[in-house]
Amino acid sequence: MKGVQSVGSRTVAITPSAPDTSATPAKRMTGPHCGVAVTPAAAEGVVNRLMAAGCVAAEEEADELLAGASDQATLDTWLRRREQGEPLAWITGVLRFCGQTLHVVPGLYVPRIQSEELACRAAGLLPDNGRAVDFCTGVGAVAAHLTTRVPTAKIIGIDIDVRAAVCARRNSVQALVADLDQPLRCNRVFDVVTAVAPYVPTSELRLLPADVQRYEPRVALDGGEDGLELVRRIVAAAGRLLHPGGWLLIELGGTQDQALASALAASGFDRPEPWWDEDGDLRGLAAHVTASEPDL
Questions:
Q1: What would the pLDDT profile of 41-86 be if each residue is shown by its tens digit?
Q2: What span, in angstroms and rounded, lies between the C-alpha atoms of 68 and 32?
Q3: CA–CA dist 19, 179 (Å, integer)
């Protein structure tokens, strides 16, 4: 983002045949609490309620709610919260990202599945015993993946929000509360810098889904007039931190790769490599530091 969450282009409604519940025993869901026993009919009812609320991944969400709720009362409360549009991860307290289960607390930006591509690309560029900084770390999703994929590397997550840093530490990330590279005194020694920063132009915030506007923190979404206000600062900070040959990976959207070209060049980056999703939408950009000193 932090940008618009992609949830698919269409919803297919499926009408299942009515199950024979007369001889069907209750099924106890497995999960961290394992406290709710439900029949297939009851589980189907949960799916139907989520579909009626507009959840496009109703079956998957139902599985998470049923597996995580400790009892029926908790499940009912969770369902009502989800029907109001509250993010699922805020309700269950957990999120799967790149195969890892992460802690999430209400009020923090929920990492999107499209950010997994950035995390995987960054992990492939981070050498053993390398160094990486993850700006706008939030709950620490990208940094946690880097730590898992390259356990010998030193990973630092930085966020301006104290709550985010605390949550990231719960996810085994060494997190600092700071404004970008302010606390880092070791310039030109990092191998990788990553950032999922706010990049939605202020005028386009109104186009975000209603539940995103209602619940998620604006500071994690609003990127200023052209969406690149903080992103440009991150580019400059990365130019100071990365050694020649190092890589910056940052999430973007629209045609922001073109708009960012001059800022990248001014901070010593070349070989910009944008990537797109399967629908052809820009999702991010990787840029390489040249051997010469940047014009800072």
A1: 989 999 999 999 999 999 999 999 999 999 999 999 999 999 999 9
A2: 6
A3: 56
8 A C-beta contact, residue 194 and residue 133: yes
**Could you tell me which residues come within 8 angstroms of residue 76 by beta carbon, excluding any fewer than 6 positions away?**
none
> Which CB contacts under 8 angstroms, 24+ apart, belong to 25-31?
29/63, 29/66, 29/67, 30/67, 31/66, 31/67, 31/68
- Let me know: does 196 contact 2? Beta carbons within 8 Å: yes
Residue the block writes with tokens 């609320």: 53
Euclidean distance between CA atoms 1 and 191, whole angstroms: 22
DSSP letter at 200 equals B
Please tell me the least confidently modeled range out of 25-39, 68-82, 147-161, 177-191.
Answer: 25-39
Q: What is the pLDDT of residues 82-132, one digit of tens each?
A: 999 999 999 999 999 999 999 999 999 999 999 999 999 999 999 999 999
Least confident of 36-45, 160-169, 281-290: 36-45
Contact 282, 257 (CB under 8 A): yes
Q: Rounded to whole angstroms, what are the CA distances from 33 to 64, 102, 154, 201?
A: 11, 16, 34, 41
DSSP state of 153: S
How many angstroms separate the first and last alpha carbons of the chain?
A: 26
On the question of pLDDT at 230 being above 60, the answer is: yes
At 20, list the tokens: 């024979």
**Residue 39: pLDDT above 50?**
yes
Domains and CATH numbers, the chain: 21-84 (no CATH), 115-289 (3.40.50.150)
Residue 189, both tokens: 């020694």
Q: Model-level pTM?
A: 0.86
With tokens 């944008």, the residue in question is 274
